[in-house]
Amino acid sequence: MELNVCWMYHDIMDLYGDKGNMMVLQKRCEERGISITIDTLSIGDQRDLRAYDLLFLGGGADKEQMMLIDDLLSRRENIREAMEQGTFVLLICGGYQLFGQYYISADNEKIEGLKFFDYYTTTGSNGTRCIGNIAIRCNLDGHEITAVGFENHGGQTCNVATPLGKVISGYGNSFDSGYEGFYNGSVLGTYMHGPLFPKNPEIVDFVIYKSLKKNHPDVQLEDLIQLDDTLEQKAKEAMLKRLQVQ
Ligand code: GLN
């Protein structure tokens, strides 16, 4: 089996180890004999995003989000078609914000989003930011997962119809929402850096499975060869213990 990934704005959007998501994705595919190709995309690069099984966009500072927004908006139709054709999309923090209606930066500048979804992001009052380790409980197509990560965002994301999970420690979409991220079956957006994948092998495997589905509609999550996640699970347990949620 093959997995074709496009890592969008790899040179601009890469905060708190987001790059680690691609490293772990590659490793977990290779260990299973899944042939993975990770292409990168920078501002101005010609790419047909419909050709990919997975699009990945990491987080970034306000300045970086502003830097790439025109290029991202120019790809709107191509991204829409890719999603329509079954491409899975993984978005972290700043990338997650840009798929919604808009993002109001810390300097009160409005950045128009791709407007694929109804959620929108304002900024924390008086420059306040949601910072720290976070743990959430999520249900991914029936699979119950406790995930951990690190968040650092001024953005307060509201009007999320289908959150990724319920916050058990930390903030998530905003200071007071109690929910984290967005998941609609084909797009997963989250504030969790850390990076997300090394700390949460269940989520990596879920994303691999959902992405493989584009060309292998019958594939099941259980079809993925089981890997030894002892260390990853120990690390997660240590964090949950530190957060006093276990
Ligand atoms: N600049 C955005 C914010 O502060 C996103 C930050 C991030 O990706 N960590 O909300």
UniProtKB/TrEMBL annotation:
Signal peptide: none
Catalytic activity: L-glutamine + H2O = L-glutamate + NH4(+); beta-D-GlcNAc-(1->4)-Mur2Ac(oyl-L-Ala-gamma-D-Glu-L-Lys-D-Ala-D-Ala)-di-trans,octa-cis-undecaprenyl diphosphate + L-glutamine + ATP + H2O = beta-D-GlcNAc-(1->4)-Mur2Ac(oyl-L-Ala-D-isoglutaminyl-L-Lys-D-Ala-D-Ala)-di-trans,octa-cis-undecaprenyl diphosphate + L-glutamate + ADP + phosphate + H(+)
Active site: C93, H193
Matching Pfam families: GATase_3 (PF07685)
Pathway(s) of this molecule: Cell wall biogenesis; peptidoglycan biosynthesis
Keyword Metal-binding set for record: no
Alphabetized GO MF terms: carbon-nitrogen ligase activity on lipid II; glutaminase activity
EC number of this enzyme: 6.3.5.13, 3.5.1.2
Keyword NAD: no
GO biological process: cell wall organization; cobalamin biosynthetic process; peptidoglycan biosynthetic process; regulation of cell shape
Gene3D superfamilies: 3.40.50.880
CobB/CobQ-like glutamine amidotransferase domain sequence ranges: 5-200
Residues annotated for substrate binding in this entry: R129
Keywords attached to this entry: Cell shape, Cell wall biogenesis/degradation, Glutamine amidotransferase, Hydrolase, Ligase, Peptidoglycan synthesis
Assembly mode: Forms a heterodimer with MurT.
Functional note: The lipid II isoglutaminyl synthase complex catalyzes the formation of alpha-D-isoglutamine in the cell wall lipid II stem peptide. The GatD subunit catalyzes the hydrolysis of glutamine to glutamate and ammonia. The resulting ammonia molecule is channeled to the active site of MurT.
Protein name as it appears in the record: Lipid II isoglutaminyl synthase (glutamine-hydrolyzing) subunit GatD
Species this chain originates from: [Clostridium] innocuum 2959
